Amino acid sequence: MAEKELTPRQKFILALIVREHIESAQPVGSKRLVQKYNLDISSATVRNEMSVLTELGYLHQPYTSAGRVPTEEGYRYFVHQLMRRHPLPEETQRTITHQFYQTTGDVDDWMRLAASILAQQSQAASLVTAPHPAEARFKHLELIATRGRQVLMVLVLAGGQVRQQMLTLAEPVSQQRLSAAASHINALCRGLNTEGVAACAAQCEVLEQDIIRLTVAEMRRTSGGIAEDLYHDGLSNMLAEPEFSEAEAARGALRLFEERPMMEDLLSQAMSATTVGGVQVLIGGENTRRELRNCSVVLARYGAPGLITGMLGVLGPIRMPYGRTISTVRFVAGLLSDMVTERLVE
After folding, report:
1. How many CA atoms lie within 13 A of 286 on its CB side?
2. 135: DSSP letter
3. CATH topology of domain 8-82
């Protein structure tokens, strides 16, 4: 639904109601706005404007004589038209940056810390995917004889991803021959994408061709999509909100974390629509999943564009402090982008 143009006073009143409802989780009345913000207009005038905003679909009245509550459309208008964007306080930025740069170079540590910080700063649930190559590129492989015809293939991709696979060859092969085959493949394929690696088979003997065929299959499974490793934190924060006091609402939100296909569907849609460093806000009915109708999601991509990227974000009630949440998601995404570029991209 297209956003309807509002008068300056209507915009001001809508912004006040959204902020009040985020803070209190209660319907907001005209008298309360006039008294709290020392408005130079009467309660009757505020009520009239609230009635107009209700007719336009930006507010609704839970019951007769109650105050007003923002609708999904009201929150969308607030986020896209009225909300002022402020960076996180400098002290908060310094604290978060220090925490990240105190971690080791282990990607797992980065992801767990990012999930923890997002949950703590937003007081909602967080989700973070590990960095994932936009296109798989070959870095290195090793072939290790185990027993009989079995060989362990260790494939390392640009960006640090490691894939291991047990191979069963047609006949036993010595470690010396396996090492020679791996060295030849490494020399031919380093830095190539999937199709480039496949083309190298023409320059190889039979054993190496078999290894390249298996390598290409593994690279194709790795390219695109969402990383296997998914980190989350702060579910208790979200479930403590009054919107999730009923079991059905809580179960709907939890399903996102419990059912991998639902999470992958959400993240894949967001990844295709969000540039690195950009933030996407999905409010209530914008989600394709009925289970998320009571939620809002703030997502961002991080990483090195075209090389290696991941997703991070926050899931909470529609009554979410959007300004601070968006600033936090954007800042953490920027930090992770810097770290990925510095430490993973060659």
Report:
1. 18
2. S
3. Arc Repressor Mutant, subunit A (1.10.10)
Neighbouring CB atoms inside 10 A of 227's CB total 20
Cα separations in angstroms, 136 against 201, 212, 221, 282, 305: 17, 14, 9, 29, 14
Quick one: which of 89, 124, 131 has its CA closest to 106? Answer: 131
- The DSSP code sequence of 158-193 is TTS-EEEEEEE-SS---HHHHHHHHHHHHHHHTT-B
**Domain range annotation of the chain:** 8-82, 90-133+226-343, 138-222
For residue 31, the Cα-to-chain-centroid distance in whole angstroms is 40
The answer to whether residues 168 and 150 touch, using CB atoms and an 8 Å cutoff, is: yes
Kindly report, residue by residue over 191-232, the tens digit of the pLDDT.
Answer: 898 899 999 999 999 999 999 999 998 888 776 556 667 899
Q: Name the residue with tokens 């991209």.
A: 345
Q: 138-222: which CATH topology?
A: Enolase-like; domain 1 (3.30.390)
**DSSP label at residue 124:** S
Q: Which CATH superfamily is domain 90-133+226-343 in?
A: GAF domain (3.30.450.40)
CA nearest to 304, candidates 270, 265, 344, 246: 344
Q: What is the mean pLDDT of residues 97-101?
A: 91
Task: Write down the pLDDT at residue 1.
Answer: 47
Segment 64-80, tens digit of pLDDT? 777 899 999 999 999 99
| Separation CA 172–CA 151 (nearest Å) | 9
Averaged over 241-249, what is the pLDDT?
80
17 or 247, which is more confident: 17
